[in-house]
Design a protein that fits this description.
heterodimer, A: 298 residues, alpha/beta, TIM Barrel, eight-stranded parallel β-barrel, four-stranded antiparallel sheet, B: alpha/beta, 9 strands
Chain lengths: 298, 352
């Protein structure tokens, strides 16, 4: 087994694959890739062991795990000696109301990845014993998969290393941030002065909606594409490749799951992350487990 | 209820106020910023900005003379630390001009500006994606006096958030510019047209598949194709029905006019017209529409909603619900049973 300084978290929207994945204890990355049907094993990580599971969706409150799923994940991860984080999306008040009983199930020092400033405030107010993480929806930067050159990204440089952002994280009790890898990233993008850094791989997200294209599939016309719409969780059944074949542009490969568009990291982006890991600036990778671009039988 | 409307040139100031706007908002990209940061990113939009401090001062002066106020946008989603310092200086300059408020899109910047204790109100931009009472409370704690709701929040959600945060003012979108995605969670650039333009308008080929690897069945393929066609149609409405206007010049597209009574009942104190980069005629006609609607706010709600829905003379387009910011304001809410071709076209638009 490869010993790397960077911990590996497995991101799962649903808990149902945990019985298989954790049957033999903490799985290696290659085993996860095989079980979950990833297009490829992340280079250099095949025999690295999974350290923890991140359960939930960052993008849609409909996918907030139920209490049963969370208990299941707590049991399975506890038995396998893995850490567990509850991942939460941007939430409405109804979503926050569903979150509160889930928080009650979490033991002290469990992690909650918040992708909503209000969720961070709620955690600080009601469960300061939990470890709050600022999710990638709160770590704003330009992530347009169509950008033809780094000059475009420099038009709007991110402020993640600024003192005001650090002060905000401190105020809300977040000692860790989760980041995407933006196109044309540099290793120093991941060097934070005060907090620990997790990086998502091998996909970043560029844009998300509240209304949902695939979630409208079974809705009658007037109820399609609306805020807070009903759905049948079609995002768990279908994925959609995105391409611009007529442009000849060298876009990052893209796909859509649910209300969100993702891009796949390029080789230079992977190299940048590896460099940041080697420098000790990234201490955790979060690998997309059951929410990816694969369309092979599995 | 106040009308908040955009300007991008000094010449637009007086006509927009005379048309009925109470508060105007604008951006500025001064030369010293561009020279220092090699970017126009003072705010969310590269275009539709004033270019000189003198112009900003003139806008403030004209507005004050006509009894209106000016808000300055600082609504990029993120700024570097040197940029935040520069924006603090810009805020001080704006305050000295007699400016009214800053519309802020970065939470760290909001806290920094509040710490400067300037004679300016701070409005939390829709970019800050306030979707719940906790976020609104946090924005208030950080110094915001007003929260601008993002587009995709329902009337009921807004009312509940406003009720739980009595010390804050709230503003909601009422006309124009329909982001397909959540503006506060869009990390793309409105690229020039030859590079694809805004990502929501870009011509993507979408290739659906089952994630379990099984082939799509014929019924599934047909349902997905129907859904895609409906999505294309929705986009057409979302983008102003092909960027069209009525014969009278009133813009089609995203609209919350008939929801005004619900907004008012929900303690929304201001309604926002989007479209800083738009033509002046479009902005003026937009203000006219909102003013005419608000002027009927003291009449029975049915009168106002009927007026608002007929204002463009195209009840058929209105009845689809696809132009709605707040679909829950429509008869039947999101369970509308009528729409599109089976709706009746208005004989003529009401007189404004």
């Amino acid at each position: 087994m490869t010993a790397i300084a960077t911990a590996i978290a497995l991101g799962l929207v649903e808990s149902r694959s945990l019985d298989l994945l954790l049957a033999g204890g903490a799985p290696e990355v290659a085993a996860c890739a095989d079980a979950l049907g990833w297009p490829e094993v992340p280079p250099g990580l095949g025999d690295a062991a999974i350290d923890r599971v991140h359960l939930g969706s960052e993008f849609c409150e409909t996918l907030l795990p139920g209490a049963g799923q969370l208990r299941h994940a707590l049991d399975r991860c506890g038995a396998a000696g893995l850490g567990l984080a509850l991942v939460t999306p941007i939430l409405s008040d109804a979503g926050l109301a569903r979150l509160s009983p889930l928080l009650a199930l979490l033991p002290a020092a469990a992690e909650v990845v918040a992708n909503d400033w209000g969720t961070l405030r709620l955690l600080r107010r009601t469960r300061p014993d939990l470890i709050a993480v600022a999710g990638r929806l709160l770590c704003k930067m330009i992530k347009d998969p169509r950008l033809p050159s780094p000059e475009w990204a420099r038009l709007y440089p991110h402020g993640l290393h600024s003192a005001p952002f650090s002060a905000l994280l401190e105020r809300l009790g977040a000692g860790r941030v989760e980041m995407d890898v933006p196109p044309f990233a540099e290793p120093r993008d991941f060097r934070f002065p005060t907090v620990k850094v997790s990086v998502h791989a091998p996909y970043g997200f560029s844009v998300k909606g509240r209304s949902c294209r695939i979630g409208s599939l079974a809705q009658p016309s007037p109820a399609k594409f609306t805020a807070g719409q009903d759905c049948r969780r079609e995002c768990l059944i279908y994925g959609s490749g995105l391409s611009r074949p007529d442009t000849g542009a060298a876009d990052l490969p893209g796909f859509q799951r649910g209300n969100t568009q993702f891009y796949r990291h390029s080789a230079p982006m992977r190299a940048t992350v590896a460099e940041a890991m080697a420098a000790g600036w990234v201490d955790r990778l979060v690998l997309s487990g059951d929410w990816h671009e694969n369309r092979r039988p599995h | 209820m106040k009308i908040v409307a955009p300007i991008s040139r000094v010449e637009e100031t007086a006509p927009m106020i005379r048309a009925g706007a109470d508060e105007l908002y604008c951006g500025i990209v001064p030369a010293d910023w561009t020279e220092r940061f090699r970017s126009s990113g003072v705010n969310r939009r590269a275009f539709g900005n004033l270019g000189r401090y003198e112009d900003l001062a003139e806008v403030v002066r004209i507005a004050a003379d006509l009894g209106a106020s000016i808000s300055l946008v600082m609504n990029a989603q993120h700024y570097t630390e040197p940029q935040i310092a520069a924006l603090g200086e810009l805020a001080e300059r704006f305050a000295a001009m007699g400016g009214h408020a800053l519309i802020v899109g970065d939470l760290g910047l909001l806290a920094q500006l509040a710490g400067r204790d300037l004679p300016l109100r701070l409005h939390a931009s829709s970019l800050l994606a306030c979707r719940n009472t906790e976020t609104a409370a946090l924005l208030g704690e950080l110094g915001a006096g007003r929260v601008v709701f993002p587009r995709d929040v329902t009337l009921a959600e807004m009312a509940a958030i406003a009720a739980a945060n009595a010390a804050l003012e709230f503003e909601a979108f009422v006309l124009n510019d329909g982001c397909v995605f959540e503006e506060g969670n869009c990390h793309t650039i409105h690229l020039p047209g030859h590079l694809g333009g805004p990502i929501c308008l870009d011509r993507y080929t979408v290739d659906h598949a089952r994630v379990d690897g099984r082939a799509l069945g014929a019924d599934e393929s047909a349902a997905l194709a129907d859904n895609d066609a409906a999505h294309d149609q929705w986009l057409w409405y979302r983008f102003s029905c092909g960027f069209a206007v009525t014969e009278a010049g009133y813009p089609f597209g995203p609209c919350g006019l008939c929801a005004v009574p619900s907004l008012a009942a929900g303690r929304i104190g201001a309604v926002k017209i989007a479209g800083r980069e738009g033509a002046m005629e479009r902005k003026l006609k937009s203000v006219e529409m909102v003013r005419a609607t608000l002027d009927r706010l003291d009449r029975p709600a049915g009168d106002l909603t009927g007026f608002a829905r007929a204002i463009r003379g195209r009840l058929d387009l209105c009845a689809t619900g696809h132009m709605c910011y707040y679909r829950d304001a429509m008869p039947g809410g999101r369970s509308l049973s009528r729409g599109g071709d089976d709706c009746i076209r208005a004989e003529k638009a009401p007189r404004i």
